[in-house]
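dumping this here before i forget
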Amino acid sequence: MNQFGQVMQNQQQDYELPEPPNDSISALEFVPPSSCWNAICAGSWDNTVRIWEVQSDRVVPKVMKSLEGIPLDIAWNDSGSKVYLGDSNGLVSEWDLESNQLRKVGAHARAARTCHRMGTGNYLATTSWDKTIRSLQFWDPRAAMELIRKELPDRSYAADVLNEVAVVACGDGSILVYTLLGGPVEQARMKSPGEGNSQVRSLALHRNCELTSWLIAKTNGMVFDQSLAQRTGSSPIRCHRHRQEGTGGGGMLDVYAVHDVKVNRVTQCIATVGSDGVFCFWDSQMRSTLLESKVHPQPITKCAISGDGQLFAYALGYDWSQGHEFFDSCKKSQIFLRPF
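structure:
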């Protein structure tokens, strides 16, 4: 385990990042393991993007940038010197950390919902609420240009990219699978598993028995595992659901949205966070719970796992699932780190 993880284990408590944003976290990503430093980047509904350096015994705020739109997704370059941003105005930007300057890479007609680096080559894949998936070339600093545009059947709710495969979940309940080799080329179009009235909140690609599959986190407190071979999805992980105490072993079932799902690329364990203020770690093969946290005082809106698989980050903030009347201005957003 890295030195920072050892420090947290010795303290027996999660480490709170200093100087958090003024509003809930909309995006959260660790720098890739190929980077020359260890850092974490967070985007917030207060229109800011912030970066902290994870040092051997502490986390230090490094830089902050204000945007005109809300950063809905972020992606690092391999060296950790640049961050790519998709915002609520549809702008796709490159943030050069050395110069602290923003450069426009591309734009959507509506909000840029997801932003991912492709596995090889200097390309960026983004999806949007304007019903398109776009692959943008950004390696040439003299001319950011759009390479390919693919039409989606509806707004993009979630997406992920892994090993030259991209999967997009759309607002009409469809799941689209693309190969990025010579593409993007659509491989399949299928229906999202689970109840029809539940919405996809997050999607994560992973390797399951040498088969590329994807996890779909939904508002009905379930995470489904789907693949090209198993289009209806396997038995779901029932998470972020709590049975109230009642007579005769009954009691109502409280169901909470699963806001984010992530896969530990080293151990293949799964992490989920929800509007119930709980994070859970799961065995990806047995579908059994490895760890369930205490109930935190606010929903957990985002999570991230470091590239070496040793650190887990989660963000607390109001998610408006209970409406304006339950909003408490005294509760501030928080970001915590803990060993995975």
